[in-house]
Amino acid sequence: MRRIRRLVHLVLFCPLSKGLQGGQMTAVLLLQGQRGRNEARKTKSRCEPLSCLHGVLPMCFQSRLPGIKVKYLLVVWLGIFVGSWVAYMHYSSYSELCRGHVCRMIICDQYKKGIISGSTCKDLCEERSLLFQHCLSSSPTQQVYSGLWREREVIIKCGIEEALKADSHPDSVPKRDVVLFDKPTRGTSMDEFKEMLLNFLKSKLGDQPSLAALVSRIITTADVNRDGKVSLAEAKSIWALLQLNEFLLMLSLHEKEHTSKLLGHCGDLYVTEKIPHTSLYGVDVPPFLQSLLPSVVHQIIHQWFAPAWPRRAKIAIGLLEFVEEIFHGTYGNFYICETSFKNVGYNDKYDFKMVNLRKVATEMTIRGFLKGRHCEQNVDCTYGKDCMATCDKLMKQCKSDVVQPNLAKVCGLLQDYLLYGAPLELKEELQKQLRTCMTLSGLASQMEVHHSLVLNNLKTLLWKKISNTKYS
């Protein structure tokens, strides 16, 4: 232990200098008094002194710990530097991103005032049985936490954007009810509220014949106490939730098995089921290492931890089914505007689940964004990350058609995912169909027949390989 302490002292406080020769470090340890000088005289090895924190050291380090090379000390220094940097980045970003206590304080303050209502309010604010656990937020205005509710793992989401604008002090109670919970107003009848909902859905989803059924579902969700009536607090809560794109899509796609189930809400805070695997590959490189590691290392890590190929094929089939569901679905068209393996996942049965519906947009939302938008090139007509339309360079305005459909982007995502480890007898045909899929365009002339044909061919190819097996 004494030698280890001396080694640590030397590594931390002694600079490397000319005492390094032949790939070995020639250093000396400090020995005070006459005893140290006598031991130094007995040392037979030749040693060149090295300046350190306490001056010139009279004993050769090489005689104490032979074989220690320069590269080992450099590795130690590098480890200390990287570890310190990682710790700094983690703790500095945590306090900025993770504000669950602010979210709870805002919601419970408004619940106690009678402004909002919801199925989880009592558990959150009175019984405190809805517990915030691990912070998953990527933005300070959109709080995401894993939690525990009624002995079940859940995901808790709420927005505090208006709160941060209203008051910069993180521990005060911001006055958000004036901004967010201003509709409907007192005196609004049930028929008027239904008309409000219908007009809102038309602006978001288009004039679909099935919107009346969606209005009925929204009313049922808002009626927390199941008395057949919607109170003002219940109406304000559901109206605030509908302003959130993910919540609107969750209600619109509630019949589909590929989205998270809504479990409850309180004001504009809502609770969903937890998806066990939140990445297509099962595991992801930590954010603080992503910029340090080259893409080749990322690919190797993904391949190591990815499920077996038949399970990947089953997940891919689920993803293709989801694309089919949101293409001319019950409530119109939806576009995936950030196609990334981080936004899709699967459960313990390897059934596909869409992790982040915030990256999905309705056709009406995108058309509203593109309408009359000035542009110089195509990139100026991009909604989200990759929902791009073409730019009319004569008119200097964006066109309304998205260039690349969902299926083409998904096939690009699945190319590496499915080809790695694919059965040899299937690989060539699979690669051919994926290439064909990736060349699809978003033109209306191709979207109806060609889109469906390519999608069905790819699903059939994968399903034939895994059907009648334990993976199906």
List the helices and strands and how they pair.
Layout: H1 2-13, E1 20-21, E2 24-25, H2 33-42, E3 51-52, E4 55-56, H3 61-64, H4 70-97, H5 100-112, H6 121-126, E5 130-135, E6 142-149, E7 152-159, H7 161-166, H8 190-205, H9 211-222, H10 232-242, H11 245-252, E8 262-266, E9 269-273, H12 287-290, H13 295-305, H14 309-326, E10 334-336, E11 344-346, E12 352-354, E13 360-362, H15 363-370, E14 382-383, E15 387-392, E16 397-402, H16 406-419, H17 424-438, H18 444-447, H19 449-466
Antiparallel strand pairs: 1-2, 3-4, 5-6, 6-7, 7-9, 8-9, 10-13, 11-12, 14-15, 15-16
- Put simply, the count of helices is 19
Radius of gyration: 30 Å
Strands, total number: 16
Report, as a whole number of angstroms, the end-to-end distance. 58 Å
* Major β-sheet annotation: 5 strands, antiparallel
Give structural notes.
The chain has helices spanning 2-13, 33-42, 61-64, 70-97, 100-112, 121-126, 161-166, 190-205, 211-222, 232-242, 245-252, 287-290, 295-305, 309-326, 363-370, 406-419, 424-438, 444-447, 449-466, and strands at 20-21, 24-25, 51-52, 55-56, 130-135, 142-149, 152-159, 262-266, 269-273, 334-336, 344-346, 352-354, 360-362, 382-383, 387-392, 397-402. It is α+β, with helices and mostly antiparallel strands. It is globular. The strands form six sheets. The chain has a five-stranded antiparallel sheet. It has a three-stranded antiparallel sheet with strand order 14-15-16, covered by helices on one side. The model is unreliable at 15-37, 39-67 and 162-178 (pLDDT under 50). The protein has 19 helices and 16 strands.
